[in-house]
Design a protein that fits this description.
Length: 179
């Protein structure tokens, strides 16, 4: 098995993490924070928007089962990459979207898929996806891990995350884990 790690920001991390944990070939997906200047920030600090971090999901995957390109295709289907510093009602730089690459090959592939999406005019507005080297990554607090599954009564999960995941499952049914 050959594994890779990438870190993606697409708004609230609960949806992105939950989706990727269901994908065949994904070994793990953890909610966290990246791109800021504060060491070991708390959720409250990140939400206040003063640390420079954005909510991210760090994904480790078996690249013999799923390609980095497939990971990015799923990522771009899970959020709106044209919204600057927001996803839906979540606003602020802590919700910016981005790809935090872990090596030069990931950077090149990320830049290529962004150009491809722009050329195909998949979105009516230009993409604002940040592509930058991973820096200052910190795993989020334990209660954020697998949040959607552990908090089915949460109103945000019911109103925002559940519908996104339902669409995700329809579109990517062939890529989901069977067990």
């Amino acid at each position: 098995m050959a594994s890779q790690t990438t870190t993606l920001a697409g708004g609230c991390f609960w949806c992105i993490e939950s989706a990727f944990n269901q994908v065949e070939g994904v070994i793990s997906a953890y909610s966290g924070y990246a791109g800021g200047q504060t060491e070991n920030p708390s959720y409250e600090q990140v939400c206040a928007g003063n640390t420079g971090h954005t909510e991210v999901v760090q994904i480790t995957f078996d690249d013999e089962q799923i390609s980095f390109r497939d990971i990015l295709e799923i990522f771009f289907a899970l959020h709106n990459p044209t919204q600057l510093n927001r996803q839906g009602n979540d606003t602020g730089t802590q919700y910016r979207n981005g790809i935090f690459y872990h090596d030069e090959q990931q950077r090149q592939q990320a830049e290529a898929i962004v150009v491809e999406i722009e050329e195909l005019k998949i979105w009516p507005d230009p993409l604002v996806t940040e592509i930058t080297a991973i820096n200052n990554y910190y795993q989020a607090e334990d209660y954020h891990q697998d949040y959607f599954n552990n908090n089915p009564q949460n109103q945000y999960c019911n109103m925002v995350v559940a519908p996104k995941l339902a669409k995700f499952k329809q579109k990517f049914a062939s890529k989901l884990k069977t067990s």
